[in-house]
């Protein structure tokens, strides 16, 4: 079936700005399940939308301008990096405070106040642009106006972080900033030499090691492009494709709708990279379906939250952390993807396994297969949507920069969306084929001719679409995707800005060495204890702050320490990243779980407890990767030398699956029959023993696991014969 205009304009994949309905029929529901998609993703701390009236339209226009400016700088790169970073922060502050004024402030003076803060924040970016050369010349000798602007941007970033991300991250950054001012009065080993106001303001408000450090550079250069890319794909109907494909493929398995949630979230993670956004988008479909199927509300929300958070580690678009990690470690993005691929697959294997066990325990079966959509038909009808994602994957692994790959992927999806209504007006099918081939070649020539031709193609498509009704609706889709992409990027961008305070403190004072020495001293005698300490740091920090700042702070402290203990740097960073994701599931502040709460109609705390139970079996994965780095496709050990690298990788994957399987049974308390507490503890012990690469631990774990599984199987057969009235 050819890809026609109904797929984008007026059809099931079309989204007008503010309304969409996805209707899925299942026998289990005995009625239509109507799911309304949120057009405006929920940003932490802010209601959806841009606000009513003229100020709402102004905020909407600012979001579009923000997106266009960022894409222009990415495509042409004509501005100095410092200017790009400053303007990126300026736009973040302007849009954040504009949305606070429109959506949060209740009085006119309050609205005026927050809009004033936003304008002031934007002017700090303009100041850095206009006086860029002068600021370089007077480094170390800032003027009074420089100090006012530098101090102002620091204060505004703190307030923006508090408004959009909550108090915890702002307080943590504030403690680090206070340490710069007053650390000289602390006892050893925390004491430092002391720094005056001018030096602190210059370091944090103008240098490249404070607010304008590596995290905000990555946000401006990489993250924004991929967020907008995901917004365009969602508008084009990718979410519906993923849901239909997942429902048709695994809806009939044991656990049915819960397995659909896991698979659709995994697929959504390939383009989204945002756990909270994934919960809001796919949870509108999966959570009601799970509840109708018989799952408890809290469990349904926990499944969606757990599987959605895995999207941050699912290649090819792994979320902001992956880009920050690549920039920090100075390695190709493909190396990060390579290290993440097996842990990501295992993470979702954990979700599938835990759902299967829970469904078996509750006696739930899959949805009737004759009532499920055909997944391959859905793929055939919407296959062009896969092309931009496929191009993105190819470019990332072909050695191109993430900026180039993201820009190319975004351009292809824009060309696809804009070309669809034009192709529909071409009569014969053969002519439509020729049109798409010519358009594809023109877009692909970007790689050899340069960006100007691609821009000309897009401008030509925009001009052509402006002359007929279906084309103008398509232009509205692109406009709304630009604005929504900019809005979705706010939490990530603001987090990158405020965490620069933390990184700047570490570089200015050298306090990181104190923490590193403490971890090394512990790990000299017990590496496992150092890993547990690092894990607990991630989980505790994650109770109050999002994954991105959690990763940046913890990796800055633990990464060098674990390297001294023999852990490869990439593995240690992935270890921190993995538990940073887990931290968004742990109470009391589990962002993903609280995002699922209004959809599931259950408390965020209950959902969090279920999510932790579902994800707990996955705790073995990063520990196992530390002891056997081949799980992340890093250097092999003695087994690789003796039998070859593929053999070691295969064995490690097998051992990880066995550890996940045994640990999951211990946590759920069911395999073939219900397990008692002693049996559950034995399953847990067998699973944990497979983590440690110590003499005989693998053998003990595998033998114990086989014995326990055999006993469970025997009891299951005996109970089944009793139910049939046969002798045991």
Can you put this structure into words, describing what you see?
The protein is 72% helix and 1% strand. With 728 residues, it is mostly helical. Among the domains are: 53-216, no CATH class; 636-728. A two-stranded antiparallel sheet has the order 1-2. A hairpin with a 6-residue loop joins strand 1 and strand 2 (32-36). Helix 2 packs antiparallel against helix 3 (108-130) and helix 11 (275-293) packs parallel to helix 27. The relative contact order is 0.11.
Break the fold down into its secondary structure elements and pairings.
Blueprint lengths: L20 E5 L6 E5 L16 H24 L4 H23 L4 H23 L1 H6 L6 H22 L1 H16 L14 H9 L8 H23 L1 H13 L6 H13 L5 H19 L3 H13 L10 H10 L3 H30 L12 H7 L4 H12 L4 H23 L4 H16 L1 H4 L1 H15 L3 H20 L1 H20 L2 H12 L3 H16 L4 H18 L4 H15 L7 H10 L3 H12 L4 H8 L10 H6 L1 H24 L8 H13 L7 H27 L5
Antiparallel strand pairs: 1-2
Radius of gyration: 26 Å
Helix content: over 70%
- Estimated share of beta-strand residues: under 5%
Based on Cα principal axes, name the global outline: globular
Short characterization:
Helix content is 72%, strand content 1%. It contains 33 helices and 2 strands.
């Amino acid at each position: 079936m050819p890809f026609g205009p109904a797929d984008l304009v007026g059809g099931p994949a079309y989204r007008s700005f503010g309304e969409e309905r996805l209707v899925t029929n299942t026998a289990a529901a005995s009625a239509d399940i109507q799911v309304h998609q949120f057009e405006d993703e929920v940003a932490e701390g802010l209601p959806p939308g841009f606000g009513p009236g003229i100020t709402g339209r102004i905020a909407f226009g600012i979001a579009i301008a923000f997106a266009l400016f960022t894409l222009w700088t990415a495509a042409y790169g004509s501005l100095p990096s410092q200017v790009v970073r400053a303007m990126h922060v300026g736009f973040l502050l302007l849009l954040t405070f504009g949305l606070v004024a429109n959506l949060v402030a209740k009085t006119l003076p309050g609205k005026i106040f927050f809009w004033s803060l936003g304008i002031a924040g934007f002017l700090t970016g303009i100041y850095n642009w206009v006086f860029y050369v002068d600021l370089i010349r007077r480094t170390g000798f800032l003027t009074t106006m420089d100090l006012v602007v530098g101090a102002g941007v620091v204060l505004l970033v703190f307030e923006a972080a508090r408004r959009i991300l909550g108090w915890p991250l702002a307080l943590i950054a504030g403690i680090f900033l206070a340490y710069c001012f007053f650390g000289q009065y602390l006892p050893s080993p925390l004491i430092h030499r002391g720094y005056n106001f001018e030096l602190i303001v210059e370091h944090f408000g103008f240098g490249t090691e404070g607010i304008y450090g590596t995290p905000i550079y990555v946000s401006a250069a990489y993250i924004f492009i991929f967020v907008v890319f995901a917004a365009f794909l969602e508008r084009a109907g990718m979410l519906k494709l993923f849901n239909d494909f997942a429902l048709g493929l695994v809806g009939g398995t044991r656990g049915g709708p819960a397995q659909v949630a896991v698979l659709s979230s995994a697929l959504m993670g390939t383009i989204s990279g945002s756990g909270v956004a994934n919960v809001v988008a796919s949870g509108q479909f999966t959570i009601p379906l799970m509840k109708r199927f018989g799952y408890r509300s809290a469990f349904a929300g926990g499944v969606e939250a757990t599987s959605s958070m895995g999207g941050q580690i699912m290649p090819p678009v792994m979320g902001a952390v992956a880009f920050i990690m690549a920039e920090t470690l100075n390695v190709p993005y493909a190396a990060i993807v390579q290290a993440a691929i097996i842990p990501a697959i295992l993470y979702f294997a954990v979700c599938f396994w835990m759902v299967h066990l829970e469904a078996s325990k509750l006696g739930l079966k899959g949805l009737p297969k004759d009532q499920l959509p055909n997944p391959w038909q859905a793929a055939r009808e919407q296959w062009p949507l896969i092309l931009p994602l496929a191009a993105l994957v190819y470019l990332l692994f072909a050695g191109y920069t993430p900026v180039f790959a993201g820009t190319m992927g975004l351009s292809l999806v824009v060309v696809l969306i804009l070309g669809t209504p034009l192709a529909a007006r071409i009569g014969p099918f053969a002519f439509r084929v020729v049109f798409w081939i010519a358009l594809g070649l023109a877009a692909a020539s970007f790689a050899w001719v340069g960006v100007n031709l691609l821009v000309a193609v897009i401008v030509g498509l925009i001009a052509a679409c402006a002359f007929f009704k279906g084309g103008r609706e398509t232009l509205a889709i692109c406009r709304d995707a630009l604005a929504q992409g900019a809005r979705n990027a706010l939490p990530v961008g603001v987090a990158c800005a405020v965490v620069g305070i933390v990184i700047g403190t570490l570089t200015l004072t050298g306090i990181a060495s104190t923490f590193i020495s403490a971890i090394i001293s512990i790990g000299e005698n017990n590496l496992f204890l150092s890993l547990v300490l690092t894990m607990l740091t991630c989980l505790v920090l994650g109770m109050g702050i999002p994954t991105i700042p959690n990763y940046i702070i913890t990796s800055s402290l633990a990464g060098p320490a674990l390297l001294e203990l023999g852990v490869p740097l990439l593995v240690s960073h992935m270890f921190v990243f993995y538990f940073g994701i887990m931290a968004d599931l742990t109470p009391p502040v589990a962002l993903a779980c609280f995002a699922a709460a209004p959809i599931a109609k259950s408390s965020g705390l209950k959902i969090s407890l279920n999510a932790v139970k579902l994800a707990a079996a996955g705790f073995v994965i990063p520990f196992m990767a530390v002891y056997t780095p081949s799980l992340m496709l890093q250097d092999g050990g003695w087994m690789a030398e003796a039998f070859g690298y593929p053999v070691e990788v295969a064995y490690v994957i097998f051992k990880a699956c066995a550890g996940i399987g045994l640990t999951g049974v211990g946590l759920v308390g069911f395999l073939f029959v219900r397990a008692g507490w002693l049996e559950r503890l034995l399953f847990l012990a067998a699973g944990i023993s497979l983590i440690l690469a110590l003499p005989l631990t693998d053998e003990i774990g595998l033998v114990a696991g086989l014995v326990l599984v055999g006993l469970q199987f025997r009891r299951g057969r005996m109970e089944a014969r009793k139910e049939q009235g046969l002798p045991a």
